[in-house]
Structures are given as C-alpha cells and as structure tokens.
Amino acid sequence: MNIVITGASKGLGKAISEKFAADKQGHSFFLCARNAETLKAFATELQARFPRTTVNFYACDMGVKAEAEAFANWVLGFNKPVDILVNNAGQFVPGSISNEPEGVLEQMIQVNLYSAYYLTRVLLPHMIQARQGHIFNMCSIASLKAYDNGGAYSISKYALAGFSRNLREELKPHQVKVTAVYPGAAYTDSWSGSGVDPQRLMDAGDIAEMVYATAHLSPRACVEDIILRPQLGDL
Ligand SMILES: NC(=O)c1ccc[n+]([C@@H]2O[C@H](COP(=O)([O-])OP(=O)(O)OC[C@H]3O[C@@H](n4cnc5c(N)ncnc54)[C@H](OP(=O)(O)O)[C@@H]3O)[C@@H](O)[C@H]2O)c1
C-alpha cells in the first residue's frame, strides 16, 4: 500500500507508521513533519528496521498552505495511488477562550484543521478517480466534549470532526473511506513534561492498532468513528 502520514516523526504518527511497516508487506511511506533532522532520523530507522518498506519523507509545515500543497504535489509526483492518508499533524496548546493569547485560535485552526483540508483537497481528485483509498482524520475527545482548558484547541478539533463527517458523506459513492479517530489522552511528546503518569494514559500503539485494523476491513465496510479513552476515563 502507499501510505501518507502527516506529523509522522513522533507520537501517534510515528506509532501508526511503525504498525503498518511491521506487517511485512513492503508498503511505501510518504511521511512529513517540520523538523527535518528528527524526520530523517525516524525515516532512516524505519527503513532499517523494515527493509521491505520504502520510506520517503519531506519536511514541511502543514499549517502553511503553500507547504502543505507542496507536500501533496511531492506525493503525487511518485505517480502512485494513495491507499491510506492519515491527517495526523496537529498541535495541542491548552488555554481558555477568555485568556488565551491573541492568535492562538488562528494557529490551532491552521495546524489542526487547514493542514488536513489543504492536503486532502490536492490528493482527493486522484483518489476519487482511482475509486480507492482510506482517509483517517486525527480528531480528539476534544472534538466531542468541551472541557476545562479546551479553548482554541478544542474548537479546532470540533472543526476537524466536521471536516471528517462532511468528507465521509461526500465520498460514500466514490469508494473512498473516511474514518474520524477520536483519541483521549495517549502518552506522546505532547504530554512529556506535563507531570502526568504515563501509566494513566493510553499508549500511542493503542491508537495505531485501531487505525491498522480499520484499514483492513472489506471494501464494503467503513468504520466511521474510532473513540478511545484511557481505561480510567478522561483526565
Ligand atoms: N497524544 C494525545 O493525547 C492526543 C489525543 C487526542 C488527539 N491527539 C492528536 O493526535 C495528533 C498527534 O499528536 P501527538 O500527541 O502524537 O503529538 P506529538 O507527539 O507532539 O507529535 C506531533 C507530530 O506532528 C509533527 N507536527 C507538528 N506540527 C506540525 C506541522 N505544523 N506540520 C507538520 N508536522 C507537524 C511533529 O513533528 P515536528 O514538531 O517536527 O513538526 C510530530 O512528528 C495531533 O493531531 C493531536 O491533536 C493526540
């Protein structure tokens, strides 16, 4: 399969890449993140651990329209149909509407919503024409539930869920699947330094397992929503 994953150098994106790479089918990966060195280090490691895979990578900021579209066109340049697209790149900034700094909402919308919209819109005509593919949008429990310190992050994740639901409706007749993933807290870099006990949270691999399983159903079935929470519930 040809697998495009944004925000792939750490956390959930990294775990999803590793899960697909481990199934030994020799998939081709098209990965991005902003930091070129971290991305290259992960891509090199993935390629070495799973020699049957082909790992391509491209450093870009998915919150910048021109860079997201350049990444999309770089993917198209390989002339391979996209089988899996994981719109995962995102950023968590806690805050409250009343007192978060000016500009945070714009930043959250850029990185958490527009990133997926920009990339998907360039790849979509090709997926529709090929009548295949599966798009995963990394939403959050913060897409479903308001909570203290949700602020702009939660607003942007509600918007991403709206994007995902509309896309699902639009793509039903085109044989392209759409799944919204709504994870609760999973221990990744987003949580390092927070003081939260990693054992209280899910493992990034838990989310990867669900994405992987969902990608392996028959063409007649589409898992529309994946909702996962830590066993003890939300923090
Ligand atoms: N972990 C959780 O508890 C949790 C729960 C619900 C939803 N989520 C969502 O899951 C996604 C991944 O979160 P995570 O916890 O895995 O985060 P993470 O550990 O901080 O990793 C984020 C990844 O995305 C990349 N990235 C960040 N901003 C980017 C941008 N503008 N353009 C391109 N790449 C970018 C990062 O690399 P660079 O820094 O080098 O760009 C990194 O590879 C996010 O959308 C997040 O909102 C996470």
TrEMBL record:
SUPFAM superfamilies: NAD(P)-binding Rossmann-fold domains. GO terms for molecular function: oxidoreductase activity. PROSITE patterns: ADH_SHORT. It comes from the Bacteria. Keywords: Oxidoreductase. InterPro entries: NAD(P)-bd_dom_sf, Sc_DH/Rdtase_CS, SDR_fam. GO terms for cellular component: membrane. It holds the Pfam family adh_short. Belongs to the short-chain dehydrogenases/reductases (SDR) family. This is SDR family NAD(P)-dependent oxidoreductase.
